[in-house]
Amino acid sequence: MWRRTYLLLVLVRLWFALSPSYLHPDENFQGPEVIAGQIFSYPVRHTWEFTTEYPIRSVFPLWPVYGLPMLLLRWLWIGNGNDGEIPPVAVFWTLRVLMFILSFVLEDWAIYELVQKPRNRLVAVILVASSYVTWTYQTHTFSNSIETLVVAWCLVLIQRIVAFPQQSSVLASAVLGIVAVFGVFNRITFPAFVLIPGIRLVPYYWKHPGSFAMIVLAGLYTTLLAIALDTAFYTPHSITWSDLIFHPVLTPLNNFLYNLKPSNLAQHGLHPRYQHLLVNLPQLLGPAAILLFTRPHRSFRLYSAISGIFVLSILQHQEARFLLPTVPLILSSVRLPKKETILRVWVVSWIIFNLIFGTLMGIYHQGGIVPAQVFMSRQPDATQAVWWKTYMPPIWLLNGKNEVLRTQDVMGMKGELLLEELARLATCDTPADRRNMEYLKEKNGTYLIAPLSATWLDPYLPNKGLGGLRFREVWRHRQHLSLDDLDFAEDGVWNTLSRVIGRRGLVIWRVTKSCPR
Fold first, then answer.
1. What is the pLDDT confidence band of residue 169, given thresholds at 50, 70 and 90?
2. Among candidates 40, 162, 23, 192, which has minimal Cα distance to 96?
3. Residue 408 and residue 498: Cα distance in Å, rounded?
4. Beta partners for residue 409, in sequence order
5. Where are the domains of the chain?
6. Rounded to 5 degrees, what are φ and ψ at 451?
7. Burial of 368: CB neighbours in 10 Å, binned 0-12, 13-18, 19+
8. Residue 192 pLDDT class (50, 70, 90 cuts)
């Protein structure tokens, strides 16, 4: 029964990996889009983290995670006799499958090794596999998802070194040095999770200086390699030894210094320091958060999670995904209720919680953005695209169309200003615009992409000539929820939920305007 349950949960994880939800722009702009611009000829958009004078994002961890699969995919594409560039949507789904495989193999394997007792191990693996965080966040291309795997495997390596000091501890130390440096360049929050478990290594390395020398040498070599790659990426000319010695790009240091300034964090949103503990953690764990406080199992996994939560709570910009590494550590460090009635209630609540949040985050959350970009890449007349009240769209999915298509993200712009912008960009209404599909033969076209729940547009959509604009709906995707469009203060709770959920969906309109002859 347990094996069948686990295999079913693996299939559920794969199904969510292949669903086009869009949890946060960082899953594209801090990873795949950067490397796709290096390997393929797709025009891409580099966000401020990569364009500032002191860049804070390293490309070193991006190459083995995303670069190597892209290179392999391109080699297979060319090897099969295909002409031209591989479609970016094929790369997108390949990376989703890759993240599923990494989660299925590395995360579950790590939990299997970290939990020693067979019964506790079985419960831990099932809990992790049945969590919506595993289904959704871990199958998306987040640096936080990679950090989860790196933290788990550092704990595995530490446990191997301490438990079996005579069995290839030198090799394990070398691997630990490489993985630890990789983790730091991936996210500077990584050391917070391995600080307490790493203390276990102090007495061991005191007795085994050879292994200590190996971890230092491996870490130093990996650090130099990472600095060289970052310096080469951010230097506008071919780098020299002088650049590496006198002008190295130290992205982890830049990131650390950036996050020390409250004024910088204020640009991304400030939260109370209890946000992680009282809001974000229950949001990720659901009913398991109760077990964390009532039935915890003391382990270095739990200490690792606690140290990570404590350090991350010091900073005032706190997003739920920052705590992803703690989820498998906590789920493998709690004990289920002993009483059968309480256990049944807890299991039912656990299933309901993860089904609801899995459906919300894995299917509907900004779920129309990726399909919309694929649709826009196939519109021959599209030259202007205005995105309103959605996340920033990944332009690398436009398959080269962005050479002629200007994508403008106006975020939550006021409706009146949106109309002014559309009036400026819209092409003149022609007879072709009124005939079925004839508009595709036009040389220029302006499109508005917005959620159906944006009711402010309703008076203008019937094409009564209001504002001098005409809207022609050309595409709709129903599995889309825009949770950033919630306005409880003005509309009330029931009206807001009725609007956002009842009118779920993402719509694309072709916008034209009346012009004098």
1. confident
2. 23
3. 29
4. 387
5. 2-364, 369-513
6. -70, 150
7. buried
8. very high
Strand pairing class (469-477; 384-388): unpaired
| Both tokens assigned to 434 | 């009124």
DSSP track, 142-201? -HHHHHHHHHHHHHHHHHHHHH-TTSSHHHHHHHHHHHHHHHHHH-TTHHHHHHHHHTTH
- The C-alpha R_g of the chain, in whole angstroms, comes to 25
CA distances (Å), origin 2, targets 8, 9, 113, 253: 10, 11, 18, 46
Q: Which residues 6+ apart lie within 8 Å of 136 measured at CB?
A: 16, 21, 23, 358, 361, 362
Q: Which residue has the tokens 């830049």?
A: 254
What tens digit of pLDDT does each residue of 92-125 get? 999 999 999 999 999 999 999 999 888 889 999 9
The two beta strands, 446-451 and 384-388, are parallel
Backbone angles phi, psi at 505, to 5 degrees: 135, 155
Distances (CA, A) of 453 to 80, 212, 389, 418, 484: 45, 59, 10, 16, 11
Determine contact, residues 445/379, Cβ cutoff 8 Å: yes
pLDDT digits (tens, 9 = 90+) for 389-439: 999 999 999 987 878 899 999 988 898 999 999 999 998 887 665 666 667
Amino acid at 363: I
Give the whole-angstrom CA distance, residue 418 versus residue 426.
12
Tokens of 396: 């690398």
- Please name the residue that has the structure tokens 């703690």: 326
Say if CB 370 and CB 436 are below 8 A apart: no
Rounded CA gap, 49 and 30, in Å? Answer: 8
Strand partners, 451: 506
**Are the beta carbons of 419 and 460 closer than 8 angstroms?**
yes
Nearest to 50, CA basis, from 24, 68, 26, 67: 26
- Write the burial class of residue 385 (CB in 10 Å: 0-12 exposed, 13-18 middle, 19+ buried): buried
| DSSP per-residue codes, 217-282 | HHHHHHHHHHHHHHHHHH-SS---HHHHHHS---HHHHHHHHHH-HHHHHTT----TTHIIIIIHH
Cα torsion 133, 139, 144, 147: sign: positive
Contacts of 360 (CB under 8 A, 6+ apart): 481
In sequence order, what are the beta bridge partners of 428? 513
Output the 3-class SS for 274-291. Answer: CHHHHHHHHHHHCCHHHH
* DSSP letter assigned to residue 316: S
